[in-house]
Amino acid sequence: MRIAGFGELAVSATGVKKGKHVASVLALVTSLIAIPSQAAAHPHVFVEANLEVVRDDSGLITEIRHVWRFDEVFSSTVLLDFDENGDGVLDKRELDIVASETKQSLAEYNFFTEIRNAGHGVDVYEPEPYIVDYVDGQILMIMAMELVTPTAADNEFKISVSDPTYYVAVDLVGENAVHMSGNSTDCEHEIERPDFDALLARDQQTLIDRFTQSEETFVATDEYLTWVHFRCA
User: How far apart are CA 108 and CA 165, in angstroms?
Assistant: First the structure.
């Protein structure tokens, strides 16, 4: 199954599917009830992310891999919701249930992944494998997404790992959070983070109007997303 990018699914408030928000399904706190747009005005869940980009011998990017570590508060909520036998840990069966629920929900938001090459969206297949684990009190998600068509990284290739509704804050902590494997000796990358102070100062009234007058979920434009730019010789 191919996954479209944000540009095809969530480029504006009117382009987002109505109904339950991905984060409400992740935590199951709201019992699959929609989260009001006002609640999505700032993040409620925090993720420390690592991104790996795989390049084959011919220099084409073939796959991207995510490792996400969720904050302890959110992780404890998942533990409470899914620890059916009450032993204080998540066993394989319980983790499989978490994986099934989150994979279905995250698919609606492209697994928080947008890939572009020279301004055009790059399609990927659904993650395989898709693994959820519980380590040292935190939920881990590990997934690999194969590109439908391998592509070069020599012409404005970039990846965003962000929740466009800003309910989940995804953070690439430092340059070491991004890694290219395979034929990567002639590649470099740069993380471009949004200037939220400037953006909020510029868009303050627009955001207030949207949150108070619209029932649509807030969807961030490109300027609000964190992008990783890749360049290979």
Answer: 12
Structure confidence by residue, pLDDT tens digits, 7-31? 433 322 222 333 333 444 444 433 3
Both tokens of residue 112?
A: 């928080």
Q: What are phi and psi of 137, to 5 degrees?
A: 80, 10
Residue ranges of domains in the chain = 2-232
| 43 half-sphere exposure, CB direction, 13 A CA radius | 17
For residue 139, the one-letter residue type is: I
Q: How confident is the model at residue 83 (pLDDT cuts 50, 70, 90)?
A: very high
> Around Cβ 82, how many Cβ atoms within 10 Å?
20
Which of 89, 105, 230, 111 lies closest to 159 in space, CA to CA? Answer: 230
pTM for this structure? 0.77
Half-sphere exposure of 173 (CA within 13 A, CB side): 8
Write the CA distances from 207 to 12, 30, 94, 211, 217, integer angstroms: 13, 24, 39, 6, 11
Pairing mode, strands 45-55 and 168-172:
parallel
- CA-to-CA distance for 138 and 26, rounded, in angstroms? 14
